[in-house]
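Hello Y.,

Per our agreement to keep a running log of every chain we model this quarter, I'm adding this entry. I've kept the format consistent with earlier entries: sequence first, then predicted structure.
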Amino acid sequence: MYSRLKYMEKQRNISEFILLGLSYDQNTQIFCFVLFLFCYAALLAGNFLILVSIRCSPLFHQPMYYFLSHLSSVDICYTSTITPKFIGDLLGGTKTISYDNCMLQVFAMHFFGSTEVFILTVMALDRYVAICKPLHYLLIMDRTRCHLLVLAAWAGGALHSFPQLLMAIQLPFCGPNEIDHYFCDIFPLLKVACTDTYITGVLVVANSGMVALVTFVVLFVSYVIILFSLRHHSAEGRRKALSTCGSHITVVILFFGPSIFAYLRPPTTFPEDKIFALFYTIVAPMFNPLIYTLRNTEMKSAMRKVLCQTLFSKEVRN
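Predicted structure for the entry above:
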């Protein structure tokens, strides 16, 4: 293993990459800094509030909210692998990232991103059981099975991301080190590698692209089945189910639409990639807390209790 690492080090003569970012215009960069700093702060606040509200209430023992707490945790980790550096680079001059940090970013982004994909799939399964098999719901989605499903989602994320990392670290870099993106990803790295990357690009599409496509198809089919089965429910039952499923479907579209565009295509890069990447790295995770709480009475009640308890404890200390 050591000799293999030494060989790969000889295959590259660069120690850092230059990230070209979103724009060269200084005014645009300042605008983006303010905008995405607000987005990141809103993302952290919203997801932390969901986490605390679920953990500090009986909702944590309900499968749907147990999965939602894990989705919020993944959203925080996923966006934090990219956004803080991206925001900092908007105020800096030359945007550089070391080779090691670049490889770490590739791994972390794909690990947390694919884990989020699998947790969204688990949440769809939970809604399918709750709506289509309500009498057996608590028996099927018991605590042990919930733990196993979440563990499987994290394991699936690792299984997807390690091949991505191995493909990235085996690329030789011996000349250009400018990456036309605001973070390190596999397609922009293929563009600056000094070797024929066709096979590697096909493997990336087969890995990332197929994961996005297959899970999207599974989610789409599951929600079609759920919506079709609502014909047999009461008006109140349909309203509640549609409210929950509507939130899930919105999240799926925001996350999977840009992801499929980015990875399920011939291995190349387009100027639009950076705009689409903003949706699945920042925008979708930022809107998740709002989408999941806006029409959810139980979540809004739990959040109000947490906020009231926080304000009351501050008043007592004062």
